[in-house]
Amino acid sequence: MALPPVPVTRNSDGADPHWPLGPRHVDLFKENFRPARRLDPFRSYVYGHRNGDFSDSPPDGGSIEPWKVLVLYSTEPDLYLDCDLLLDGKQKITGGSHGWRHMQFRILGMRFGMGRESFLHQREMAARAFREGHDYWGWRYLSRCTHYLADLGNPFHVSVVPAELLLRHLFSRRRLLLKLTAAHHGYEVFVERRFREGQPSFREALMYGAAEGRDCSDDPIAMLDSYMQRAHRRMKPILHYFLDQFGKELVDVFMTMDHGSDVDASEQTKLCSGKAADVIFSDRHRSSLSFLDRATDEIFIDVGRMLGSLINGFAPLQR
């Protein structure tokens, strides 16, 4: 946080045929912020909806502290960066190209998704930008990198369905997809809402893990397999909690989704988030959310440790 501000510049990287960007993606500059509306933080879950509008041009002569870049752009991969692409014939399983780049798991021995590659690609882009003196874009790529790294610590991004649940729904694929979507997206709604409420244990867990990561000498790549394995093991109890605790009421929220649609599943689920939050945080359920709080604290210690190690690894490039 003591690093001096860096000039805000346009991205000088050309199109990369090996890593295409979503056709609707535009490099927006949040440094050019124009207030336009006021949204209820407990009702707005569509990431493209904001309290203000952003410019597609950098501010003239503008500069910004690096830590702010890390914070401001960490959600950029959940906009259009990875949407509307044909990356693999199996991407329907992940709900489209967005899920394909943010998830990685195995079903019956087959691998789905490329979350690890997304993390490594953005890490290399950040390192290259710093080496070439494009510090602002080094920080923006690093911000994107933190997003994919955190995604690999999300149990629902590295493990999609327990074997017994898969076998139970062999002949009811739509019902299985609805249950998985309800648990996966319901959990993300839970975490986001808790953050907006200022859940102190989440902050404490992240900071505790980040301090450990900062002080260790391990490269996050060397820790990646064990990190993903721990996240994988955490998925099953959280999944069953959602199905047992909220059941049909939560699953029905996602009935409007069309898993055969060309519209990315990430965009469809966001439209269901408000109603999902109403179910999860209803008065009859609020008192029983402590299990999810504790499980998420454990996850965030792990995520914080990886993020601390990642950012610490870039420290020599800033001296």
Description of the structure:
- With 319 residues, the protein is mainly α.
- It has one domain.
- The chain is 54% helix and 7% strand.
- The chain contains 14 helices and six strands.
- The protein has a two-stranded antiparallel ribbon with strand order 1-4. A two-stranded antiparallel sheet has the order 2-3.
- Strand 5 (104-107) and strand 6 (110-113) form a beta hairpin.
- Helix 3 packs antiparallel against helix 4 (135-151).
- The longest helix is centred in the last third of the chain and has 26 residues, at 220-245.
- It is globular and about 55 Å long.
- The chain starts with 5 loop residues before the first strand and ends in a 6-residue tail after the last helix.
* Element order: H for helix, E for strand: EEEEHHEEHHHHHHHHHHHH
Structural class of the secondary structure composition? Answer: mainly alpha
N- and C-termini, Cα separation: 13 Å
Please tally the β strands and state the result. 6
Alpha carbon gyration radius: 20 Å
SSE layout:
Blueprint: E1 6-7, E2 29-35, E3 52-55, E4 63-64, H1 66-72, H2 97-102, E5 104-107, E6 110-113, H3 115-131, H4 135-151, H5 155-158, H6 163-168, H7 173-197, H8 200-215, H9 220-245, H10 247-253, H11 265-270, H12 273-280, H13 283-286, H14 290-313
Antiparallel strand pairs: 1-4, 2-3, 5-6
Helix pairs in contact: 1-4, 3-4, 4-14, 7-9, 7-10, 7-12, 8-14, 9-10, 9-14
